[in-house]
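name: query_chain
kind: protein
chains: 1
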Amino acid sequence: MKRFAVIFALVMALLIPMNAFAAGDGTGTGGGKGEALTVASATIQDGDTLSAGDSITLTFSKNVTNASVAEANQALFTVTDSQGAPVEIQVVMADDQIQPDQKENVVIQLPQDLADGSYTLTAAAGVTSKSGEAMKEDYTLTFTVGQAAQSGESDAQADGSANGAASSTSSDGSAQTDGSADSSAETTQDSGRNMPLLYFAVAVVILMMLLASANARRRR
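structure:
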């Protein structure tokens, strides 16, 4: 019986840390705490041309919209013109409790009456995640508003249906890729949530095998 108790204790000692690992984000980092906060992606590229009233979405590597950091973060997003003068913008963040899938996104809404010209969007160093990590350096994007945007639209229309079809194909392909990535992420998260149950089931099976072995020895 003592041997059984020792074996069972060893099994549980191995399973408990594995269970804790599975309950996290699957990387052992507790949801990425301690990792640097970065801008993972943006809906425009540096140098793109926009129209007045457009919006730009920055996606961060962590939650930057939680109530504990949202207000301070909002003040760190600015748009300036070619002379360095600030532009009045709206910084929109979703409630991460209501829309958890939007917790990494910050939307910069440009004004409808924004004048033609060149502009710079800055997410300043100090933008902080819910877990306490702050960006170490400014993140900037430049873009143009005005005549270039209108000219680009006219050129696109003049290209005809061939370019339209190509654009449609590209858009559909991107959507399918994004969908596959989302599906993969959801599958990984589901697997992580199911791992504790799997380890518990393994422990139960091992316990039953040990009990059966002990009973067999007694009968002998």
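note: The chain has two domains: 1-31+159-220, 36-146.
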